Amino acid sequence: MTTSSKAPWFPRALGAATAAYSVAIIAKPELFARPTKLAPDAGSLSRGTAIGIRALGGRDLASGLAMAFAPDGEALRTATAVRVGSDVVDLVLLGTSLPDREARTKAVAVAGAWGALCALGWWLA
After folding, report:
1. What letters, b where the CB count within 10 A reaches 16 and e where it falls short, cover 31-42?
2. Most exposed residue of 34, 79, 118, 121, measured as fewest CB within 10 angstroms of its CB?
3. Region 17-38: what's the mean pLDDT?
C-alpha cells in the first residue's frame, strides 16, 4: 500500500539540521562536551571523549543525510525512524550516564524534544 507524504520537507529540514550539528561536533567536540559536562569548562578534552563524541556525530551525520536525501515515501520514513531510534538511545544513555544531574536533565529534554520532532517528521514523511 502506497501512502502519500503529508509534508516531506519537515523531516528533510530536521535531517539537514541534524547533519549540520553533527559536522559541528565532529569538527569541535567541545560543542557537545561542555553542555553535557563530559569535559571541564576550560581545558582540552581527553582523546577518548573526543573520539566518542565524533563517533556520535558520525552516526547522526549519516542519519541526518539519509533524512535529507532519501526518496519520498518508505525510504524517508525509514531514515526518519532510524533518527527517532537514535534519539531514544541518546535519551536513555545520556539521561542515565552523564556525570552531572543538571546535564542529564538537559540531555533528556533535548533528546526527548528532538525525538518528538523527528517522530512528527516520520508521520509527515
Report:
1. ebbeebbbbeee
2. 34
3. 96
DSSP string over 44-81:
PPPHHHHHHHHHHHHHHHHHHHHHHHSPTTHHHHHHHH
**What amino acid occupies position 46?**
S
Residue showing cell 531510534: 85
**Cα 122 to Cα 67, 83, 85, distances in angstroms:** 10, 9, 11
What pLDDT does residue 40 have? 78
Q: Tell me the three cell numbers of residue 22.
A: 553533527
Residues in the chain: 125
What whole-number distance in Å separates Cα of residue 115 and Cα of residue 84?
5
Residue type, 107: A
